[in-house]
């Protein structure tokens, strides 16, 4: 009995540590608030007050049709190191209203990094992408890989963390039942329940880690120049391979001084001036 009690105590300690770690992780991940502004680091109270005023001013300017002022107000919030999915979404909408297609696509993609399941952002992103000149055919993708990505994007990193903690707690409870219960039926239920909870825990933890890694990755970028030639090497005198236009998404492979080697959706690759694109 002492061994079983010690075992449950160890599991409980692990659960407490996991809860604490996840709470700390969630504090480092921005999420929407009533003002739709959060920070990855604690900002001074005065700065937050200024940003809330800028947020309200931006919303008023947007409603009045003064999109240039709205964009300026929203961007000033980013200058304080504050951001959220809602802020990026509003920035995308404002930039799109001003005809800045590349900028709108950039902000929509930034919003989806934080809230990948937001349907409004995805819908507006699709409309903005339809305005781009480059119609690049995407390379075929294995259906299982696409399905896994869609499932992972259905929830945020924080949501997957909460689910994994719930699975851990359920597994702990089932383990306690298996170790302490006297009836054989309860012991069997606890045993198989613990196995099922372990499977769910592994899956949700993996999705949460993958989603967090996706948030922290900055390999993708958006072409911001109206038109830019992709070179065969990192040299302005190199051969022009093809031309990309504003709003096209690329993936950065290599960086060399002010040049990036990029790959587009159809697999073509080349070198591009770093100043003509902006990382998501």
The radius of gyration over CA amounts to 24 Å
Number of helices: 9
What is the makeup of the main sheet?
5 strands, antiparallel
Strand content: 5-15%
Shape: globular
Instruction: Indicate the low-confidence ranges by residue numbers.
Output: 14-42
What string, H for helix and E for strand, traces the elements in order? HEHHEHHHHHHEEEEEEE
* Spatial order of the strands forming the largest sheet: 8-7-6-3-9
Helix content: 55-70%
Structural class: alpha+beta
N- to C-terminal separation? Answer: 55 Å
- Overall residue-averaged pLDDT value: 84
Strand tally:
9
Account of the 3D structure:
The protein is α+β, with helices and mostly antiparallel strands. It is 58% helix and 14% strand. It has nine helices and nine strands. It has helices at 2-27, 45-63, 67-78, 85-97, 101-114, 119-129, 143-153, 157-180, 184-216; strands at residues 38-39, 82-83, 220-223, 227-231, 240-245, 249-256, 259-263, 269-273, 277-279. The strands form three sheets. It has a five-stranded antiparallel beta sheet with strand order 8-7-6-3-9. Strands 1-2 form a two-stranded antiparallel sheet. A hairpin with a 5-residue loop joins strand 7 and strand 8. Helix 4 packs parallel to helix 6, helix 5 (101-114) runs antiparallel to helix 6 (119-129) and helix 8 runs antiparallel to helix 9. The radius of gyration is 24 Å and the shape is globular. It starts with a helix and ends with a strand.
């Amino acid at each position: 009995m002492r061994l079983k009690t010690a075992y449950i105590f160890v599991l409980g300690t692990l659960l407490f540590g996991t809860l604490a770690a996840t709470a700390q992780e969630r504090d480092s991940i921005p999420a929407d608030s009533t003002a739709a502004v959060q920070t990855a680091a604690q900002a001074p109270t005065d700065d937050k007050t200024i940003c809330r005023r800028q947020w309200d001013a931006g919303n008023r300017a947007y409603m009045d049709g003064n999109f240039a002022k709205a964009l300026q107000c929203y961007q000033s919030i980013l200058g304080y190191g504050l951001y959220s999915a809602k802020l990026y979404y509003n920035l995308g909408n404002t930039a799109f209203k001003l005809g800045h297609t590349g900028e709108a696509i950039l902000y929509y993609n930034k919003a989806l990094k934080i809230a990948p399941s937001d349907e409004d952002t995805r819908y507006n992103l699709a409309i903005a992408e339809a305005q781009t000149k480059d119609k690049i055919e995407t390379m075929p993708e294995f259906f299982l890989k696409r399905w896994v990505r869609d499932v992972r994007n259905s929830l945020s990193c924080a949501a997957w963390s909460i689910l994994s903690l719930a699975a851990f707690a359920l597994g702990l409870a089932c383990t306690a039942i298996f170790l302490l219960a006297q009836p054989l039926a309860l012991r069997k239920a606890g045993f198989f329940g613990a196995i099922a909870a372990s499977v769910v825990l592994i899956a949700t933890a993996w999705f949460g880690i993958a989603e967090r890694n996706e948030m922290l990755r900055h390999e993708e970028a958006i072409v911001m120049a109206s038109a830019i030639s992709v070179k065969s090497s990192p040299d302005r005198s190199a051969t022009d391979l093809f031309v990309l236009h504003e709003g096209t998404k690329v993936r950065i492979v290599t960086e060399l001084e002010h040049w990036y080697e990029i790959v587009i959706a159809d697999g073509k690759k080349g070198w591009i001036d770093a100043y003509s694109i902006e990382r998501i």
